[in-house]
Amino acid sequence: MSAPRRTAGNWLVDSVSFVLAIMVSLLAYSEGEGDPVPHLLLAIDFWSGMVLCLTLWFRRRWAVPLALLAAAVSVYSDAAAGPTLVLIMTVAVHKPWRTSIWVFAVNFAATLTYLQVRHKEDWKTQLVIGMTLYLAMAGWGFYIRSRRQLLQTLRDRADRAETVATLQAEQAQLRAREEIAREMHDVLGHRLSLLSVHAGALAYRPDASTAEVAGAAEIIRASAHQALQDLREVIGVLRAPVGELPQPAFADLPALVEGSRDAGIPVDLTLDAPGAMPEHVGRTAYRIVQEGLTNAVKHAPGEPVTISVTGAPGNGLSVELRNPAPNRRRGDGQGLKGLSERAALVEGRVEHGRTPDGDFRLFAWLPWPA
Length: 370
What we know:
Layout: H1 8-32, H2 39-54, H3 63-74, H4 81-94, H5 97-117, H6 123-204, H7 210-236, H8 253-262, E1 267-272, H9 279-299, E2 305-312, E3 316-324, H10 334-345, E4 349-354, E5 359-366
Parallel strand pairs: 1-2
Antiparallel strand pairs: 2-3, 3-5, 4-5
Helix pairs in contact: 1-2, 1-4, 2-3, 3-4, 3-5, 4-6, 5-6, 6-7, 6-9, 8-9, 9-10
């Protein structure tokens, strides 16, 4: 795998490190020229130190091998001091702390050997100075490594938090869309079903009197007008929070049934639910009855519908709709699926299906706390 490209910041740091290493190496070499060693060793000392400085341009790729090479050169070279310090820091920055300790130990052993090779009289002072510099550079490298790891951790957490926030926003948007779709289905489905019944009656009764045609047309007009008003209300709050959508109440249930009766649907309502009912339970019961009436008009037009809404605080609320179902039920079942979802939101349940006597039964139980 190829090494990552060197950034402008890396070029700056490498250039500064290279210049400082040369300066430190020249200073250390000038102080060691008076050591009692052969001139050939001094020449090798200088040139090997300068070559080692050149290797600093590759220190990120081969940090450990170059640090070990610097330790070997440091056995006899004063000019290796500068690049050795830089390489010790580089290992501490880029490699695990165990590797850094091994590199430090090798350089410590090289320093002890250097003091013997160069015949340093003040070897204790030289040892203390050398180890202090090594420890300072290693500590600086560990600090840089820890800071980078901390910043990377914070960046990762920020990325994860952003991802989670995006997913939550998408889920909230999806829930809002589903809620809006349910509201539009519930609000408009019932009105349009009634409108369809009266329009169908006009189509199948060409012998109807003028008064009957006028009455049916008036009902169609009123239903269409009310459906349009409902649609405007829903569209007007599409950008508002879902809680602000127009919501019916349990007290509106008799009016809903009466509207179906006015449309010519024989509805028998039994309502026995005394007591203060939570809004969300009453609203869910209203939607269940509304969807049941819509399905009855759609799949069994003209057939009688029996509705029973009974319950009390602490016992729960039971909602049951029955109507003959002579025809095979059609549709994709989205309305009933929406009712199941509504009931589940209030920890209730919905059941539906044919009874042994051939009727279609829609039953729901909703919790009603005492």
